[in-house]
Amino acid sequence: PSATLYKAAQAGTDVHLIVVTDGDSGANVDGHKDLASIRRTEWQKSGTLIGARSMKALGYSDGKLCNDMYHAISDEIIEHIASVIATYSDELSIDFMTFEPQGISGHLDHIAVSMITTYIYETLRQKNYNAATIDTLKYFCLSHTMQPQANTNWVYMPAGRAVAAIDESVDYNDCAQKKLEIMSVHHTQRHDMEQILQSRAHIPKSKRNVDHFYYYK
Known about the structure:
Strand order of the largest sheet: 3-4-6-5
Low-confidence stretches: none
Helix content: 25-40%
Mean pLDDT: 95
Shape: globular
Structural class: alpha/beta
Distance between the termini: 21 Å
Order of helices and strands: HEHEHEHEEHHHE
Radius of gyration: 17 Å
Largest sheet: 4 strands, mixed
């Protein structure tokens, strides 16, 4: 949801990004010798365009997340969040944002990150940070308009959510070109980007250029 993150940064919200895996097992159509390094650089460029205040890459291998890593990843992220909070002197309200629990695409790494983020969110809500309120956990999802039925062209990709199940929708028609610019720096994933854009080309812009979220309750 880069457009939502960009709009938040433009409005004065500090955006902090964490990426868990390097994407080293993804399609390597350009034959890069070190795909992980290339994709990490692309992610850093996209974060700069978003306006992120900080970016943290954990460097785990793509496609390998499992239960044995669950708490190690959680502890690393919690430690990083604490270090970020320590840089502020003002009272903070912190929102979390991650994939919806089915990972949107059905990618098992996405699902793992969603579960780990939810675990971290609940864990931190029980901690007493003097200058931080743990507020909302937002699950990024697709609407039923964007994804009307399940797709098994790759793995199981669930259908989008009904309007009644969505808690927040962010219209980004005012920065749609910025969204494309941010997406385009992920050059090694350009074929995925083109496929996504083509699959939604028939949807009116008023419904296409929208990021959707539902909240953890």
